[in-house]
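Extended Data, panel c. Modelled sequence:
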Amino acid sequence: MEDTEIIDLFWKRDETAIQELSSKYSGYCYKIAWNLLENHEDTQECLNDTWFAAWKRMPPHRPLVLSAFVGRIARGFAIDFFRKKHANKRVERRRKDVLGEMDELSFSYTVEEQMAEKELLEAIEKFLWKLKETDRDIFIRRYWYLDSIKEIAKRHGVTEGCIKTNLCRNRKKLYRILKQEVLT
């Protein structure tokens, strides 16, 4: 079933919308959640929350890209679930590294002081589209899908050091762009 048809089912409040969404995007969302949680039961719970949240958010929101819409919801639930589960515990190194790598991009800001979330997302999207296809894939694989450095290196046929350097350089580029656009 096409995405537009699935979205229309949600807008009609037809309960088959959840089944169609699940059948089309469960593998995609499972991978996103699994990369962070690495536990089948937790990942399934995350997916169930994702389908319910999609039901609650459509309407009023009509997503332009359904896969991105549900992927973002699944990722948010997986991160929340991970943080709750591992609060005050030792976190596995890879996950700690991924979450920590992006901390250097953090800004302290209030809505009044900085640009709106939509503008921030547009700036990040613009940055990603300016990257070479390979660099963009590496960045998205690491920070969206939470793939390991080893998996990304294998995917691109390069060393892990090459991937680490690529990510570091692109994080610095993004930081400079965000600092320029957000703080000026």
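The chain has two domains: 3-90, 100-183. This feature is highlighted in the accompanying rendering.
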